[in-house]
Amino acid sequence: MTDLNLHSLSEQLQTWAHDLGFAAMGISDIDLKEHPNYLQRWLDKGYHGTMNFMAAHGEKRWRPELLEPGTLRVISLRMDYLPENTHALDVLEEPNKGYIARYTLGRDYHKLVRKRLATLAKRLQDAAGGHHRAFVDSAPVLERAIAEQAGLGWIGKNTMLINDKAGSWFFLGEIYPDLPLPVSAPKTEKHCGSCTACLDICPTQAFVGPFELDARKCISYLTIEHKGSIDTALRSKIGNRIFGCDDCQLFCPWNKFAKPTQESDFKPRHSLDNIDLVELFLWDEHTYLDRTEGSALRRIGYERWLRNIAVALGNAPSTIPVIEALKLRLSFPSELVQEHVVWALEQHNVDV
């Protein structure tokens, strides 16, 4: 295709992407510059914890042409997910409520974003031929590095991608095309300035410094990725966060520019944006599976669901409903759950 045709195709992709609900699109080269070295230093320090997948796949994570042979560019797309009112700060300040990361209150984003990306990739194939593969957090892809180079924002001090007109409440997805599409201008300047709000607010002080996160202390890692016992030194700092953590986004000044999502599938289900811990803890496994159907909450399973809520109940005020709920789970057939229930009861000075 001629340069003129490729430019026209790129403009058409922008229109299609917008029609499919994507808020922004950019195109990057496949050379990820300094990002592979940053990743290797992070891995060498062990900051990935038990997320061994971060060290797997060799160079495929930062060399798109190895992951998908023939790739010449990466199309990076943004989809906003924050509903208009999620009661986030109110819930964090109410220790009897369970805080769930706002990206997972509705339908599992993998399903929705993947379907839209596949549709866009098919339109590209119909228009220009070739082979174009779509990803959404489903393969070894340095999506934030790619999005930064595609001009969708900059990687901030909290390691999130930040956009000066949309904050950071969004998902990213990618398409690897075998076409030399014109690249977008990257974000060469990080606009965090002297602000350290995200670093200062982190409940577990998981940031080693600006742009550097020790995931082993991160509440999102502890409540989602980590499969074993949660470090007792960190449990009291988790507060009422039972699935993920949004603090470094909630207090980022750039998020005053975040726009509410237009996707109805991302709206909260089953009142999970504002629900009591005791109610959640008393769900049996059937209820858990029913209420989390089609949700990313399913990924941790019922055992870790109870583990996380037990920690939150240990941090809740000492009330009869809290203590009785914990006592009911003392006999739950899981040493992991029992351990955290015992710890929680000890926080309320209850002998076990």
UniProtKB/TrEMBL annotation:
It is found in: Cytoplasm. GO terms for biological process: tRNA queuosine(34) biosynthetic process. Cob(II)alamin binds at residues 61, 137, 158, 161, 172, 220, 245-246. Pfam families: Fer4_16 (PF13484), QueG_DUF1730 (PF08331). Keywords: 4Fe-4S, Cobalamin, Cobalt, Cytoplasm, Iron, Iron-sulfur, Metal-binding, Oxidoreductase, Queuosine biosynthesis, tRNA processing. SUPFAM superfamilies: 4Fe-4S ferredoxins (SSF54862). GO terms for molecular function: 4 iron, 4 sulfur cluster binding; cobalamin binding; epoxyqueuosine reductase activity; metal ion binding. Pathway: tRNA modification; tRNA-queuosine biosynthesis. This is Epoxyqueuosine reductase. It comes from Aequoribacter fuscus. The keyword Oxidoreductase applies. The active site is at 137 (proton donor). Its cofactor is [4Fe-4S] cluster; cob(II)alamin. The gene is queG.
